[in-house]
Amino acid sequence: MVVRNCREVKVQSVRFLGTWDEASDFVELTLENPGWESYRPGQFAMLRPKHWGLELPWGRPFSISRLDAETLTVFFQVIGRGTSRLARLNPGDEVVVWGPLGNGFSAPPETPTLLLAGGMGIAPFRGYIENHPTPEFLRLFFAHRVPLANYPYLAMAEKVRAEAMQEHTPEDLPRIIERIRELMDENHGGIALACGPTPFMRTIQEHAVAGGLRAELSLEKSMACGVGACLGCVCKNGEGKHVQVCARGPVFQADAVQL
Amino acid sequence: MVVRNCREVKVQSVRFLGTWDEASDFVELTLENPGWESYRPGQFAMLRPKHWGLELPWGRPFSISRLDAETLTVFFQVIGRGTSRLARLNPGDEVVVWGPLGNGFSAPPETPTLLLAGGMGIAPFRGYIENHPTPEFLRLFFAHRVPLANYPYLAMAEKVRAEAMQEHTPEDLPRIIERIRELMDENHGGIALACGPTPFMRTIQEHAVAGGLRAELSLEKSMACGVGACLGCVCKNGEGKHVQVCARGPVFQADAVQL
Amino acid sequence: MDLRVEFAGLVLKNPIITASGTFGFGLEFSSFGDLKRLGGIVVKGLSLKPREGNAMPRIVETPCGMLNAIGIQNPGVEAFLKDKLPLLPWRETAIIANLYACSVEEFGDLAGVLSGEEGVAALEVNVSCPNVTHGGAAFGQDPAQITKATEAVKKRCGNKPVIVKLSPNVTDIAVCARAAEAGGADALSLINTLLGMAVDIKTRKPVLANVVGGLSGPAIKPVALRCVYQACRAVGIPVVGIGGIASAEDALEFITVGATAVEVGTANFLRPDQSFRIIDDLPRAMLKARAADMAELRGSLVLPGQ
Amino acid sequence: MDLRVEFAGLVLKNPIITASGTFGFGLEFSSFGDLKRLGGIVVKGLSLKPREGNAMPRIVETPCGMLNAIGIQNPGVEAFLKDKLPLLPWRETAIIANLYACSVEEFGDLAGVLSGEEGVAALEVNVSCPNVTHGGAAFGQDPAQITKATEAVKKRCGNKPVIVKLSPNVTDIAVCARAAEAGGADALSLINTLLGMAVDIKTRKPVLANVVGGLSGPAIKPVALRCVYQACRAVGIPVVGIGGIASAEDALEFITVGATAVEVGTANFLRPDQSFRIIDDLPRAMLKARAADMAELRGSLVLPGQ
Ligand SMILES: Cc1cc2nc3c(=O)[nH]c(=O)nc-3n(C[C@H](O)[C@H](O)[C@H](O)COP(=O)(O)OP(=O)(O)OC[C@H]3O[C@@H](n4cnc5c(N)ncnc54)[C@H](O)[C@@H]3O)c2cc1C
Ligand SMILES: Cc1cc2nc3c(=O)[nH]c(=O)nc-3n(C[C@H](O)[C@H](O)[C@H](O)COP(=O)(O)OP(=O)(O)OC[C@H]3O[C@@H](n4cnc5c(N)ncnc54)[C@H](O)[C@@H]3O)c2cc1C
Ligand SMILES: Cc1cc2nc3c(=O)[nH]c(=O)nc-3n(C[C@H](O)[C@H](O)[C@H](O)COP(=O)(O)O)c2cc1C
Ligand SMILES: Cc1cc2nc3c(=O)[nH]c(=O)nc-3n(C[C@H](O)[C@H](O)[C@H](O)COP(=O)(O)O)c2cc1C
Ligand code: FES
Ligand code: FES
User: Fold this and answer.
1) Residue of C102, C129, C157, C227 with catalytic role
2) Contact partners of A by the rule of 3+ C-beta pairs under 8 A?
3) DSSP state string for D271-283
4) Ligand 3: residues whose CB is within 6 Å?
5) How many other β-carbons are positioned within 10 Å of the β-carbon of residue B12?
6) A49-84: buried (b, 16+ CB within 10 Å) or exposed (e) per residue?
7) Which residues belong to CATH 2.40.30.10 in chain A?
8) Measuring CA to CA, which of A61, C12, C154, D102 is 20 to 30 A from D28?
9) What is the least distance, in Å, from the CA of A94 to any CA of chain D?
10) What is the least distance, in Å, from the CA of A230 to any CA of chain B?
11) How crowded is residue A239: how many other Cβ atoms within 10 Å of its Cβ?
């Protein structure tokens, strides 16, 4: 698991192989491996089907969920124009892929590591768990709204200590926040890695900063280029300066980013 | 075979069923019959796949090549952005269709009728032959550039007296023109119906007008609406006035249109 | 859900009006939907005398849009009144005449002809045709001419509301909007097309015989929305939003920035029942915007810091 | 096939230049193609002092285009010269600095800083930024300011060619083109973005924190081509065409109406190697246009009746 430096990133056109469940809005999309030898979990790829034409000029960023010798897998929810078209690909359709992009999560061996996933934020942790040198040090907490069967959670829970909490009503939220704080406190001395919606991340950031806990947050912004050029995806870093989420992130130290 | 008046024209969304030869640039595309009971050969349909989105805002006009109780067939050549996408439809894809549009060819019974088709101009004559009350009075002449196997010619030649001439080199053209004139002269007292590229039509128009022969020409123009509203598809009629090809044509009396 | 809108003395069933030149005289679409369901119909541009329009080719498809240089082909205002208007459901739907002229006087004369026609609900003054250099372009880009043309129409229009339709091909749309208001316009509509061009590299010729033409369709929606936003802030009269509207959501974007109604143009070519579909879809889009009615949504844009 | 173009003292391998703000400082794309193959690279807009740019969100996708309101975030001209320029292949490819300023004086100062830099092939003067009201907008829309800014840059630029980049948000682009020529510009480039807007009807907020932003991409190509056509007829200096270029054919359309070179902007987001692909595809497109070389194609538009 090496961090690929920017010069090795390539654009490739690869074939779409299939999805896990054609009828679902939660899509596990598998492509040919574009020739990548490795990646660092938390890194992402830009995807743009070849036949998209010009109506949607941007690629779409997705966390790399799995990479093996043959295939690249991303896991996404259909939310808009791009994802709904991605979900309707036909086997053999060509997809332009550029990546692996961004920095990825730390993966210190033999370190208690708490994976905090909110909803689709579970995607990067699939590969994180599979590639970790000492998975017995990992612990997964998953907060979700729709039923668990929509996510790759169960496969992950077989490999690491895991728990999930569903938000059925807004009243469930305080309990979930409470549990996150407990787990982070228990994990003191280790590291927490988080990916999920902004309010979820804010909870984690606040608790990490307040308690001096080591934590990394993976951010999401609309992206046009994915390579640091357009400055469309910036967030503010610790000093209040705008930095590109795609090139300087998407993973930031909890105390070095403003949400 | 009744002329549908404009009020009966509907927009329908129908399923794509398949094409004759997936690898060819000459595509016979079959859709569910949109609920049309009849049409008049020479009429056309506007086609726009549902998933086209906004990049190509216009439907594409095609002569109705065949209509039976279950299916609507058009026959086209891949030439640009729209036709290349139409050729790549997947079974089950929905296509928005409006039609039958325009006026269609005359089909007087027991009248010697010469069908003059140039290239893709053969499309409307497929259904013309199948629907004619007295097909024994029909005679087909087909001028083409690419091999005959690309066209539905052979199926048609089984039903009516037919001949085809291929233009291999520009030198073949005078012979083809000569043959068209001969056939038109032989058909004196009958009617000639023509569909094909503009130079082809011009030859026929000139000969018909010069010889006082009855002839109808089917025109092609870029179309946006297909229903006479945008005035984008006009030609000049006999008096030099602009009239819509989609609504007043596409079939015109040879002496009542400027090419 | 109550979708009615009222402005300039008009009461429309809903804010969806079909735009001039994209919906013919309405009758071409009567088999695709019940014309009475439309908020209104703006008919093809009308001139005093019949016009043959420009030479062919007149239209070309562009990415998410199209160029047109029809050149206001029309049978003339008299023929419209005699042959088309009687066939339209003008008691149930607002039929709006679109006036095209090449001088202030002609605009006045056109208004005079239409002023007494019961079937005409309002006059839309096209001072922005980009296709025709003689008259049209000068009008649409010169605030003084906009004021004069508006005044001329107002003087002769009887009690018909006057909507002035603005061109976006100007440095400051607010100045043009105020010029029309100063001339006595009862409402504004905007935008007309953006001036554009296409070239066929095979022949090295402009695709349009007229060389340049007007760009319309979803491609221009962001420009149109900005213009409508700026115009709404510049004047006190109602504004009708036009430009790239293809869905109910698009329509509500324009109403949110301050438009009272909208016109659907190029989207009528996506499929001929598109305007009817947009009307069908309005209640759903209103729920998405959590809007009780059109008046509540209108101009409710929340600016940063608010 | 010889794809070289020469203008304003520059010799480019081919007419494909990457547009400011869409190709970073070039280095972001070095893994997607050999930067030395590009005709040129216009770097991100540079100001005297570092700028943080506008608040987020700054970009939104629109039909066949996008809106941006980046607000010229950049590390300042000094940091560019120190940290970025030395890493670029400036001996082999024209590196063009894009100057952003809010006053005539600042433009002069920026030119002064860059005038002695061997690695900078030319200066592109951005008098057209629509994102920032203070300075930018006024400059780009006022011919007198365009002339003054051009003069100020020409006075301090040493022997660097000066390219003035024009905004399309004006009534008459020919007037602006002549204003830049009058100020001594060696070449023009156009168009910058069209002013646009988008609204999220769920929140009723403008999508961009800056409310309005610049529209770019294939959607605007027809407008850009028309502007370039008009500018080429208005001035005697070379013109660089920009706006919606996504293919080799698009590039040749601009050259046919009179552009000497072109810049590729938003199309770099279709895929990061798009500019390299366009260069690869140029010979094929030249054959389609039956053009022997760029000079022969340039301005060879055949007008109706010719
Ligand atoms: C680094 C990164 C990794 C991501 N990983 C995943 C993942 O593994 N699984 C997953 O389901 N989603 C992921 N996302 C979010 C995903 O990119 C968006 O859901 C997707 O782009 C939506 O596209 P759309 O066209 O369907 O939506 P639309 O709303 O139609 O898109 C319009 C534009 O907004 C952008 N956009 C909309 N929502 C988001 C969002 N939440 N984040 C970023 N851009 C957005 C789109 O990219 C597009 O440019 C990730 C985003 C980033 C930045
Ligand atoms: C009444 C009518 C009947 C037709 N019937 C047939 C048929 O049966 N078989 C067939 O192969 N073709 C037929 N055509 C031509 C067919 O419509 C065009 O080939 C097709 O629209 C090209 O679309 P495109 O997007 O692939 O081409 P593009 O060049 O990418 O299209 C750009 C635009 O130009 C228009 N256009 C381009 N070429 C033509 C053309 N030759 N005629 C009209 N518009 C054109 C397109 O509609 C489109 O709007 C017919 C045209 C008309 C008007
Ligand atoms: C083919 C066509 C013809 C048009 N004719 C007229 C016209 O006669 N009078 C007029 O005021 N506007 C005319 N327009 C402009 C439209 O009414 C509308 O203002 C413009 O197209 C922008 O809206 P859209 O993007 O929804 O099409 C025409 C537009 C098109 C596409
Ligand atoms: C994200 C983005 C940032 C831009 N930044 C600049 C800039 O800093 N300076 C400038 O002169 N133009 C800038 N532009 C304008 C482009 O250089 C170009 O003129 C415009 O986008 C039109 O070309 P296109 O349609 O090919 O993108 C920017 C455009 C985009 C999309
Ligand atoms: S997406 Fe362009 S800088 Fe990040
Ligand atoms: S295509 Fe619109 S009038 Fe014929």
Assistant:
1) C129
2) B, C, D
3) -TTHHHHHHHHHH
4) B 230, 232; C 19-22, 44-45, 68, 70, 72, 98, 126, 165, 192-193, 216-217, 220, 242-245, 264-267
5) 17
6) beebbbbbbbbbbbbbbbbeeeebbbbbbbeeebbe
7) 2-101
8) D102
9) 14
10) 24
11) 8
What is the token pair recorded at B230?
A: 């945008």
Tell me whether residues B57 and C266 touch, CB distance under 8 A: yes
Per-residue pLDDT of A2-13, as tens digits, reads 334 433 466 766
Residue of chain B minimizing CA distance to D219: B55
| Interface confidence (ipTM) of the complex | 0.95
C contact set with A (CB within 8 A): 63-64
Mean pLDDT of chain A: 91
| Superfamily the domain D5-297 falls into | Aldolase class I (3.20.20.70)
What is the fold, at CATH topology level, of the domain defined by A2-101? Elongation Factor Tu (Ef-tu); domain 3 (2.40.30)
List the pLDDT tens digit at each of the 306 positions of chain C. 889 999 999 999 999 999 999 999 999 999 999 999 999 999 999 999 999 999 999 999 999 999 999 999 999 999 999 999 999 999 999 999 999 998 899 999 999 999 999 999 999 999 875 544 444 445 778 899 999 999 999 999 999 999 999 999 999 999 999 999 999 999 999 999 999 999 999 999 999 999 999 999 999 999 999 999 999 999 999 999 999 999 999 999 999 999 999 999 999 999 999 999 999 999 999 999 999 999 999 999 999 987
CATH number of the A113-256 domain: 3.40.50.80
Q: Please name the amino acid found at residue C129.
A: C
Q: Which residue has the higher pLDDT, C136 or B118?
A: B118
CA–CA separation, C271 and B96 (whole Å): 8
For the Cβ of B81 lying below 6 angstroms from any atom of ligand 2, the answer is yes
- The pTM of the whole model exceeds 0.90: yes
pLDDT for residue D189: 98
Confidence of residue D131 (pLDDT cuts 50, 70, 90): very low
Numbered ranges of CATH 3.40.50.80 in chain A: 113-256
Mutation test residue for ligand 4: of D17, D18, D22, D100, the one with most atoms within 8 Å of CB: D22
From CA D154, how far away is CA D107, in angstroms rounded? 10
Subunits that touch chain B (at least 3 Cβ pairs < 8 angstroms)?
A, C, D
CA A88 to ligand 5 centroid distance, Å: 26
Do the chains contact at A229 and D24, CB–CB below 8 Å?
Answer: yes
Q: Which ligand 4 atom is nearest residue D44's CA?
A: 8
Atom of ligand 3 nearest to the CA of B230: 1
Yes or no, beta carbons of A57 and D28 under 8 Å apart: no
State the count of interchain CB pairs (< 8 A) between B and D: 4
A residues 64-93 closer than 8 Å to B (CB): 81, 85, 88, 90
Q: What is the DSSP string of chain C?
A: ----EEETTEEESSSEEEPTTSSTTSGGGTTTS-GGGSSEEEPSPB-SS-B--PPSP-EEEETTEEEE-----B--HHHIIIIIGGGS-TTTSEEEEEE--SSHHHHHHHHHHHHT-TT--EEEEE---SS-IIIIIHHHH-HHHHHHHHHHHHHHSTT--EEEEPPS-SS-HHHHHHHHHHTT-SEEEE--PEEEE-EETTTTEESSTTSEEEEESGGGHHHHHHHHHHHHHH-SS-EEEESS--SHHHHHHHHHTT-SEEEE-GGGGT-TTHHHHHHHHHHHHHHHTT-SSHHHHTT----TT-
